Amino acid sequence: MAIFASFVAVALLFGSQFTGLHLLQTPVAALLGAAALVFALGLWDDIWGARVWQKFAVEIGAAAVLYFNGFRILKLPLLFGSHRFGLVVAFLLTTFWVVLVTNAFNLIDGLDGLASGSALFSLVVLFVVSLHTTHQSVSFLAIVLIGATLGFLRFNFSPASIFLGDAGSLLLGFMVSALALAGAEKSVVAIVIPLVSFALPVLDTILAVVRRFLSGKPLFAPDREHIHHKLLEKGLSQRTAAVVLYCVSATFGLISLSLLRPTYTTMALASAMGAGLLAVGINRLGYYEFAELGLAARRILAQKQTIARNVAMRHNIDDLNRAASIAEICPTLTSICSNNGFDRLQVTVESEHEFTAEIAPMVVDSSGRLSFSCARSEQPHHAPCAIDNAPLPAQTWMLTFELGSAEHRRSASLTAYASCSPSSAPCDVSLLTNEFRTALGDAVERALARCQLPPSRPVRQPATQAGPQKAAA
To answer: How many angstroms separate the CA atoms of 131 and 253, rounded?
Structure first.
């Protein structure tokens, strides 16, 4: 209320003296009226509470007042050359801009002095830009709002004794969005510079929407995952966190002012610096949603390698379907280790039967089980319990599952070992645990059945003289 009252009072009393304009007879009057509408919305929300749709309805109405009084985006030379948008597209762009920036400053108002300080830096940038244009009214309104905000910030900085509330944060957001629109039709500078200077609140809003979308949360539900909340979680005090974000706002402000005389070099440098700050900030703040998004992007980029591994696995399955002995199975398992990032594959079979020497390199371990293992090396391991004797990487995961189907007489299992590095990710797990598992189980059963010894017959006793007929029988 203090900001709104002082801003409107000074604008009405001294506007014509400094700008040579009668504010009540110019579009500036429409700007002040729309600002009063947004301020009333915020005040209502502070006292009685307003629904999301009610806020959007009033903000869209205020944006419409601006649009029909000359505050509009009719073209974006930076992206579309000199092409002018139609009235519908221009209205949608103008409305989106006003609603986005207005709510951005509202959402960032989570620390004492943060929203007012961020708005102060943005207003300074707008004032400097307006000095390079013919919009004297923008310069006047910007400097008046700077004075009102600076006076308020003195008591709003931590520990605060007065607060913006929704009335103040929505008002500041709406005013900076409207003042940025004043020169949007005539200058590339007037489009790009405000966008860069508003980077902190706008990025925080965009991050909030993307985060909630990725985590499946309601887009407009409040949370404690905003940038300032993350800084507080890292142990910073409110004052320190606010100062850090002031520095971020000031940095983006300086980057934006470097575009007053835009060239390809300055545009490239500004883009690189902005992207670098964004990447470092998101990484340091530790948003899990974006970490998962990065992993998904890497998986997409590695999709070609995954397809190649799956194709190789299917060829290996064909080889297993043709294998008739353990010796023929081993090269296939060695190939699977090499192609899919496994350090080792071990097959273990529970059986009480006796077998011929053709089951080599399968051996009987100390517990009486049949086992053999194949690693990435060209030759499979022949020693008993090779999986225990051979060294494995320090960080290794293990997957064990049964082989074959229920009708097999022998109980067999496969254990896969692989390092935890991302580069060793195996092929599709469903392919591994279904088609490959069945083919390997069938191959092992077929090989063991081929070399299984028949059960030993009891030794026949010689016939005695007393009972020749019995012995003959």
So the answer is: 16
Question: What domains does the chain contain, in order, with CATH numbers?
Answer: 2-297 (no CATH), 303-450 (3.30.450)
Token pair recorded at residue 331 = 């090269």
Contact present, 121 and 250 (Cβ < 8 Å): yes
- Residues 285 and 230: their CA atoms lie apart, in Å, by 6
Q: In whole angstroms, what is the distance from residue 471 CA to residue 388 CA?
A: 55
Structure pTM? 0.68
pLDDT tens per residue across all 473 residues of the chain: 999 999 999 988 887 776 655 555 678 888 999 999 999 999 999 999 989 899 999 999 999 999 998 888 877 655 555 567 788 988 999 999 999 999 999 999 988 999 999 999 999 999 988 887 777 888 889 999 999 999 999 999 988 899 999 999 999 999 999 998 876 555 555 567 777 888 889 888 888 888 888 788 888 777 888 888 888 988 899 999 999 999 999 988 888 888 777 677 777 787 788 788 878 887 788 777 777 777 777 777 777 777 888 888 889 889 989 988 888 888 888 888 888 778 888 888 887 777 777 777 777 766 667 888 888 754 444 333 344 445 666 667 888 888 865 555 578 888 888 877 655 555 677 788 788 888 888 888 888 888 877 765 554 555 444 444 444 44
H helix or E strand, kind and range, residue 122: helix 114-130
Helix (H, G, I), strand (E, B) or coil at 166: helix
